[in-house]
Amino acid sequence: MPYRKIMILAEQRGGKIHPISFELLGKGREIANKLGAELSAVILGNNIAREDLMELIYYGADKVYSYNHPVFEYPDVIQYKHNIVKLIQEERPEIFLFGATNFGRSLAPRVAASVKTGLTADCIDLQVDENEELIQIRPAFVGNILAHIKTKTRPIMSTIRYNVMKKNERNSTREGMIVEMKTEIAETKTPRLIGKEGEKKINITDAKIVVAGGRGLGSQEGFKLLKELADLLGGVVGASRVAVDEGWIGKEHQVGFSGNTVKPRLYIACGISGAPQHLAGMKDSEIIVAINSDPSAPIHRIADYSIIGDLYQVVPLMIKEIKAIRGE
Amino acid sequence: MSLKIVVLIKQVPDITRVKFDAERGRIDRSSAEAEINPFDLNALEAAVQVKEKLGGTVVAISMGPQNAAVALRDALARGADEAILLEDNKFAGADTLATSYTLAGAIKKLGNFDIIFCGEKTVDGDTGQVGAEVAEFLQVPHLYYVSKVKEVKEDKIVVVSEMEEASYVVECEFPVLVSVTKDVNKPRLPTLREKLKAMKAEIKIWHAENLTDIINLSNVGYAGSPTVVSKVVVPKEKGREGKVFKEINEGIKVVLEELAKKGLI
Questions:
Q1: Within this chain, do residues A221 and A177 fall inside the same structural domain, yes or no?
Q2: Residue B114: CB partners within 8 Å, gap ≥ 6?
Q3: Which domain holds residue B86?
Q4: I want to staple A274 with a disulfide (CB 3.0 to 4.6 A). Which of A298, A327, B151, B193 is the partner?
């Protein structure tokens, strides 16, 4: 019986390893231990520092397959796919996990279609059942149902939602092997990067506290008030689709099905009624506070605390009280 | 110059109305009207805009049951020139791999194309995988999370592709598949005249037997799907405190006390 192998893609952007990679290693390690399998991280980049590759081992990898080539500077799906498919054909892993980042969601389907295997999107949990079969759990219908999915072909492939799996404690005494891989260039036409239109400064998916506004804000001005509360709490400002569509705030702040999925410790929803598409993006927040003058708004049904009132009264009072508590 | 543009369309239940049976873990599809997947409307609009600028034809393709012809009629009313429905019991129960394989087969049967537009995902399945898998089966590049079409020429397209850290400007020659987000445009509404015209238009139906020269039927539908749904669970709402305050000062006091306890303020 050949040695069982599990692989994860360690995504890097600008030479820096994306935190999802460590979360994949956390889950991958758990499954590898249950199945008695080897866990490896696959990384494709340009001159990634050896210390950074070692981090993948400290967080759970037994082996790191490292591809080093300038072609990986820009996330080029075709070149990534070409090399990963070759590795899969040579090493025959049983399971291959990708992060459900925009890049991971674009790359994984091409790999899956190329090796003709099943791919499960956007999983929020993976479990091993009593028959040692992998159960992939994912939301569908805007988060209204959870599907349990099994895959008949190998490798079993899944993309895993960011900020859901736990990474292991860093252990700098862990040992592992770094395998330098030879990059093969696909001789085919690929899209070319010709410029950048703005860096995104906020990353709402990583925020511990989100103060979000919706239609009830009534104007762009309202976000200044929310920003004041968010800054006071060390959080970031979020928004519903309506607020973004109205042009009150940028798309990178949008929470919901067609925006970002967030899971902060605290979510304060101000003037947000709670359409299913919005709830799908925030309902797993640890604590939800809803401020809305409409007592029948659906947001109240999933809130821990609902304050029925005008946000333009409630939020300034809240700011004042927080300052008072802190003795400011 | 005449571009050949393909749009991938899926008919889905109206997600804001559809009901879920928690006990049986089932979706009650009869509880809501079917409509075009909202993201596909943006793909269709992008296709029609390219056609209006450079000339060409837009072919809308969907795989689904007979009544999915309704979605295709809507696509015709909104500017598609032709509509093809891939309909066969053999196609039923397909996962993303089998769906993409079948769609790619149909596109091969159409012959050469310049651009395929699709939405970034569907509101029901929500996998966002079919576009990239179709591109792989057709061996063409794909552009993803496209929020803006900057320029289209006779042989190439320039778009803005959204990544978490930045918006990239990317250029690609035809043939290419372009997967768009909701930001790419504002879909037009069909006029009554266009709706009436679409009512009478022909929807081509292709069955499995029409595609056997291109696809292997063991790779389509449930039989050709490597992933299997073993269980569907309607998740219970997380147990929330659910405290409601109609008096705002009291509400603020309790909330801030709780947040202080958790070290959040």
A1: no
A2: B3, B4, B5, B56, B174, B175, B176
A3: 3-219
A4: A298
Contact B158, B49 (CB under 8 A): no
Say whether both A234 and A153 belong to one domain.
no
Domain assignment present for A196: no
Question: Cβ distance A271 to A213 under 8 Å?
Answer: yes
Is the domain of A57 the same as that of A151? yes
Q: Is residue A199 part of a domain?
A: no
Return residues 254-273 of A near B (CB < 8 Å).
257-258, 265-266
Compute, in degrees rounded to 10, the torsion defined by CA atoms A269, A272, A276, A278: -60
pLDDT per residue as tens, chain B (265 positions): 699 999 999 999 887 777 776 666 666 777 778 899 999 999 999 999 999 999 999 999 999 999 999 999 999 999 999 999 999 999 999 999 999 999 999 999 999 999 999 999 998 888 999 999 999 999 999 999 999 999 999 999 999 999 988 899 999 999 999 999 999 999 999 999 999 999 999 999 999 999 999 999 999 999 999 999 999 888 776 778 789 999 999 999 999 999 999 999 8
The helix or strand, by DSSP H or E, that contains position A25, with its residue range, turns out to be helix A20-35
Shortest Cα distance, chain A CAs vs residue B16, angstroms:
7
Complex ipTM tops 0.90: yes
Question: Are A39 and A131 members of one domain?
Answer: yes
Chain B: residue nearest A208 by CA? B264
How far does B171 lie from chain A, in Å, by closest CA? 5
Of B139, B143, B256, the CB nearest to A321: B256
- Work out how many domains chain B is built from and give that number: 1
Q: Is the dihedral of CA B12, B32, A259, A112 positive or negative?
A: negative
Which CATH number characterizes residue B166's domain?
A: 3.40.50.620
Q: Which residues are within 8 A (CB) of A144 and not within 5 positions of it... i.e. 6 or more apart? A: A276, A280, B18, B20, B234
Q: What's the predicted TM-score (pTM) here?
A: 0.90
In this structure, the answer to whether residues A218 and A250 fall within a common structural domain is: yes
Distances from the Cα of A210 to the Cα of A266, A280, A288, A307, B223, angstroms: 6, 15, 10, 17, 45
Do residues A94 and A210 both lie within one domain? Answer: no
* CATH code where residue A170 lies: 3.40.50.620
